[in-house]
Amino acid sequence: MKQLLIALFILSLLSCSVLKNNYRPEGTVEIKLSGTVYHPYCGGAKPDPDVAKGYYESMKFGKFKLYEGLSYKSGNTVLKDVYLDEGGNITLFLKPGDYYLLEAEKLLSADEFMKKNGPANEIHYVVKDKNCYENWMKTPDLVFSVKNDTVIEMRAKAKCWIGTNPCLEYVGPPAP
């Protein structure tokens, strides 16, 4: 019985060691990535000073594709699907090098992307041309270099009534 307990203990230690090695692959560094979107105050009732500053919101459940390199190139191979959690966070283990993230929706066809990211009602919006959307689709959401363990913040800036879409312009009435 004593030998069985010792054997189980040794087996337990070995399995923990194997799990730890699988968790952080050799030759990689740990990247803690956090994504947020800044939303400005868009009018309405007179705000208190804190509300007037706008607010940050997590990119909760954001879906991205990870690529190697510093800029978008058609035909690049997706290294990894990146899914942010509810807090807009993920931990990645990457080899030193250069990388970029592209929002998963940017891999749709231009027409599908425009339909998904266009306004529901065009009465108060000016929609820029298809070329704007095609350029936006090729623009990485984050470009970063990896050398050591690090924390990276990915920030986007929303505009009133259009969010983060650079191909829309709001021309409707301002908030009362």
Write the layout of secondary structure elements.
Elements: H1 2-23, E1 29-39, H2 49-52, E2 55-58, E3 63-68, E4 80-83, E5 89-94, E6 97-103, H3 110-117, E7 125-127, H4 130-137, E8 142-146, E9 150-157, E10 168-170
Parallel strand pairs: 1-9
Antiparallel strand pairs: 1-2, 1-5, 3-4, 3-6, 6-8, 7-10
Helix pairs in contact: 3-4
Helix content: 10-25%
Helix-strand pattern: HEHEEEEEHEHEEE
Beta-strand residue fraction: 25-35%
CATH homologous superfamily assignment: Immunoglobulins
Pairing-aware structural class of the strands and helices?
A: alpha+beta
The residue ranges in which pLDDT falls below 50 over 5 or more consecutive positions are 17-22
Number of self-contained structural domains: 1
How many distinct helices? Answer: 4
Distance between the termini: 79 Å
The assembly state of the depicted protein chains is single chain
CATH topology-level fold name: Immunoglobulin-like
CATH architecture designation:
Sandwich
Tell me the number of strands.
10
The gyration radius over C-alpha positions equals 22 Å
CATH class reads: Mainly Beta
Average pLDDT rating: 86
Sheet with the most strands, sense and barrel status:
4 strands, mixed
Overall geometric form: extended
